[in-house]
Every structure is written in structure tokens, then in C-alpha cells.
Amino acid sequence: MSTIRGARERARMEVTAAIKQEARNQLAREGAAKLSLRAVARELGMVSSALYRYFPSRDELLTALIVDAYDAVGAAAESALTSAPGQDDHLARWSALCSAVRGWALEHPHEYALIYGSPVPGYRAPEDTIGPASRVGLALISIVRDAHRADGIALPPLTPHMRPEAERLAAEIAPDLPPAVAVALIAAWSQLFGLISFELFGQFHRVVEDRDTFFAHVTDRLAHEVGLRPTRAAGAAPGSSAGS
């Protein structure tokens, strides 16, 4: 019985993968708003009722594609983080992570557009997407956390008006980092994806020509803004603790 069950599970996985791949093909041809279960079934030679046993609705198929895309870009970021040379070189790890996210986006533009482009009309993302969507942000936080533990991070003090929101952000995303650093991280995270989106969706056309150099320059500036500095020379005194 276990052999039969295993064969059925493998068959189901194969059909599920085929459905999702055809759905991605539709995203490339038509865009997410026009994704149709009937069209996917037709392209695969399935009757619609059979496909509904795998994905009961368009929204469930969209959610599966969204989770896959978030997991894929998250995995690219995490892989770059762990394979970057010199794990104590926080600037190098930041640069490697940002470049990996951009590289994934350029290789998978339609999947990137699904998760960072225009919202799909009528679709509301469920909580299932929150964990996968957090992976890149958590990887960025981990770099800054490591730098803060090693050398401390000092940023300019926050204005009194910004402090309550900064403290709320820090408590939610990184309780072990100062509020000023949490604010800078959220700003850097949003600017990273804004930068990639401008390149991918054509806003840099006839504006930025050397996009590799431009991207590296801007992400280096983002690293500076979150408090990352060149690796401290051996024997140097640690930096001061982070400002508020």
C-alpha cells in the first residue's frame, strides 16, 4: 500500500508542478489579472473539474504562485548571504544579497511582477504569504544584527515626532536593534525593491545606462544608511553602541 500511496503522491506532485508552470506561462503571456483555471486546464489537456481537485479557485492557484515566487527570491537572498566570502565582511554580504535579489528579478520578471507589481484585481493575499514574503527582509536584518553585535552601529538620533513609530517598528521586526536602525532598515528594504522595480518596469529607460554600476553604487549607499561600515581592522577598538 505504501508503494501505491507513494506513486500517487509523486503523480500528484508532478501534476501540481505542471499546473503551476502553465500558470506561470500564462502570467508571461497575459498577466496575473487574466489568469484562468479553464485556460490552464485546456493547455494541459485536462478537464476543468480535474484541475479543481488541485486548485479549487483561481485565488488558490495565485497564492501558490506567489508563495513560490517569494520563496524563490528569499532562497536566492539567503544563499548569497551564506556563500559570500568573508562572513565578517558585512558590507560584502549586503552587496551579495542585494545583487542576488536583483539577479533573480531580472531572470524571473513575470514572477517578480506578480509579487512586487500592481495588485491583482479582486485578489486578497492570505496569511500564508507573510512568512515567505519576509525572507528577504529578515536576511537584510540578519546582516545588520551581526554588524551591530560585532562593532555597534551609531546612527543620528531620531526626531521626537518619529520616535514612537520607530520604537513600534523595532519592537516588531528587530527588538535587539535600536529604533533608528530599524527605521533605516525599512527604508533600505523599500528602496532596494523600488530600485529593482524601476529597472525592471522600464523607468530607467534612456536615463540610467550603466545599470550594474548604478545599482552597486546605490545599494552601497543604502548599506551606509543602515550603519554598515568597512570591516574594522584587527586590533581596532569596537565602535560605539548604536544611537537611539
> How many DSSP-defined strands?
0
Q: Which parts are unreliable, with pLDDT below 50 for 5 consecutive residues or more?
A: 233-244
What shape does the CA trace take? elongated
Binned strand content: under 5%
Our count of helices gives: 11
**Distance N to C terminus:** 62 Å
What is the helix content? 55-70%
Report the order of strands and helices: HHHHHHHHHHH
Describe the structure.
Helix 4 (58-83) packs parallel to helix 8 (135-151) and helix 10 packs antiparallel against helix 11 (211-225). The protein has helices at 2-30, 37-44, 48-52, 58-83, 90-107, 109-116, 130-133, 135-151, 163-173, 179-200, 211-225. It is an all-alpha fold. 67% of the residues lie in helices and 0% in strands.
Index terms:
0% strand, elongated, mainly alpha, 244 residues, single chain, 67% helix, disordered C terminus
Summarize the structure.
With 244 residues, this protein is mostly helical. Helix content is 67%, strand content 0%. Helix 5 packs across helix 11 and helix 8 packs across helix 10.
